[in-house]
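Deliverable D2.4 — example input (structure tokens):
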């Protein structure tokens, strides 16, 4: 008997997860995995289809919308189930090794944690509870699926977004993001001249930005702006008449600030060049006393866990769903330290527990 049809585990969830992880679904290539989800819903007599951008739509009771992303980052990790020593309820990080005499079945594969594990949990819970579901595309790049969802459907009464939090954790906040490209041009000239060229202008601007948002080691990262350069290009133009430089950057925005405030401070640091801002997602922070957070705390305790309330330093589709202004949280099995990692893997008992938790949360809501 395989770990996928273990009578002590959630065989339906395990088999769906194995199938989805076995189907490569990097951003832009989600269709095959999305079709597998459609088949899953249709097999349970639920209407489901792919919309104009490739999202899986399975509308039903809108008391709760369960949603996660279908796409993964690239990377080939051979899909297999291995037995590993550790706690049977482990997510691979928090309590690994806590019970060395327990052999835990662990599924390896790209997306098992981010976010096919949470996606599977929510899909299975949706068919069992009769609530709405959406599997969205493009989250790892531009969140085009979530943007389309917000634009084309009415707000549900509540949202549970799927990302790894650990089966006993629930995420209530994410920082926002501001992405842009600094562009500078200067006349070409001999390098012995003292006047700064475009490359120096770009480096100088970024130095001022970093100084403005200098990291305070005594303040939580979640409460600070994190400034990161992600790509730089520069040199003499093809005609030899100018020096050009471009610098792609990302700034993570805490809930204590707005995206516009961060943009204005970064713009003020620009001297000779200018910044083309091309992506902006506001931060989000929901109340731990809201109905979704309360339901998760109760359900996690019911399953034998001690709830952990999390704030993530990155950004997710939950930031976009905040425009609906409804109670929400993000949840899913998996150790987020394994997001995008070459050893991405998910203990299957964590999938079982997370699925049961979401079912109880929906019933409580």
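Example output (designed residues):
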């Amino acid at each position: 008997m395989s770990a996928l049809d273990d009578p002590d585990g959630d065989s339906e969830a395990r088999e769906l997860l194995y199938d989805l992880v076995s189907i490569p679904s990097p951003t832009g290539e989600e269709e095959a995995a999305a079709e597998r989800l459609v088949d899953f819903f249709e097999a349970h007599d639920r209407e489901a289809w792919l919309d104009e951008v490739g999202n899986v739509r399975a509308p039903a009771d809108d008391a709760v919308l369960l949603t996660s992303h279908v796409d993964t980052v690239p990377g080939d990790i051979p899909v297999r189930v291995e037995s590993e020593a550790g706690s049977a309820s482990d997510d691979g990080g928090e309590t690994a090794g806590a019970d060395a005499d327990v052999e835990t079945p662990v599924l390896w594969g790209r997306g098992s944690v981010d976010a096919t594990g949470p996606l599977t949990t929510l899909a299975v819970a949706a068919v069992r509870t009769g609530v709405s579901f959406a599997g969205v595309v493009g989250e790892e790049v531009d969140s085009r699926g979530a943007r389309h969802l917000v634009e084309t459907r009415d707000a549900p009464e509540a949202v549970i977004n799927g990302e790894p939090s650990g089966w006993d954790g629930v995420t209530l906040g994410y920082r926002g993001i501001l992405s842009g490209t600094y562009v500078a041009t200067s006349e070409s000239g001999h390098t012995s001249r003292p006047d700064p060229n475009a490359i120096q202008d770009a480096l100088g601007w970024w130095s001022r930005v970093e100084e403005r948002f200098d990291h305070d080691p005594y303040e939580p990262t979640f409460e600070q702006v994190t400034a990161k350069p992600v790509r730089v290009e520069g040199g003499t133009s093809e005609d030899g008449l100018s020096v050009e430089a471009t610098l792609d950057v990302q700034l993570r925005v805490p809930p204590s600030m707005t995206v516009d405030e961060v943009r204005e401070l970064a713009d003020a640091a620009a001297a000779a060049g200018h910044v083309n801002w091309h992506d902006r997602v506001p931060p989000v922070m929901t109340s731990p006393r809201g109905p979704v957070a309360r339901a998760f705390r109760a359900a996690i305790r019911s399953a034998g866990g001690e709830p952990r309330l999390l704030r993530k330093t990155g950004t997710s589709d939950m930031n976009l769903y905040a425009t609906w202004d409804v109670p929400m949280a993000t949840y899913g099995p998996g150790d987020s330290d394994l997001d995008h990692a070459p050893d991405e893997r998910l203990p299957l008992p964590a999938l079982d527990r997370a699925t049961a938790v979401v079912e109880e949360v929906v019933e409580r809501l």
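Confidence is low (pLDDT under 50) at residues 92-98.
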